[in-house]
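Standup notes
- DV: blocked on the single-chain target, sequence here:
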Amino acid sequence: MDSSAPKAKKQAVKSVKAPPKSAVKSGAKQTEDFEGAEPALELLAEEGLQMLMARAGRAIAEKVESAVVAHGESLILFRPLAIVVRFGAKSQQDIARLTAQHPAGVSRIVEDLEKRGLIRRERAAHDRRTVLVEPTLKGRRLFAKVNPSVLAALESAIGGLNEQQRAHLLEALEIVVRTNGT
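- DV (later): unblocked, structure below
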């Protein structure tokens, strides 16, 4: 085993200065606080950027799910309904991509939503091979009833961030999604 590995990690950690407390409180840009980009990226990888993002996502999802369940609904069913209410008719493939679900799973979810009368499926006029999912009046009413609780849960989850931090987080996540083609 290479004994220089722990030393290298300590050196990488030493080369990254913690942001001053004033920068954290004010939401100021913190990129100036790093002496070098490579050690900072190395530290992010070592400290588990992926795990941190997963933990944050899970924490938000748990709060949102609690809000949806309080209305007797399931988050897995509510997400596709919310997408078609907010953005209009979507194909099942689009819904799968937007919810990060497997297309086969979305197919079953859409079937359940259709049986409950919350959505309907229709062939697209521009391409008869494409089936579009759109909300029914009943689906729109359910969304209107549940969504305020979802928004309150989201606010609770990110309530520690000011408006600028929220905008930066959203922008950064959108870049990650776009960069990775998801």
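- Follow-up: Residues 25 and 128 are 54 Å apart (CA to CA).
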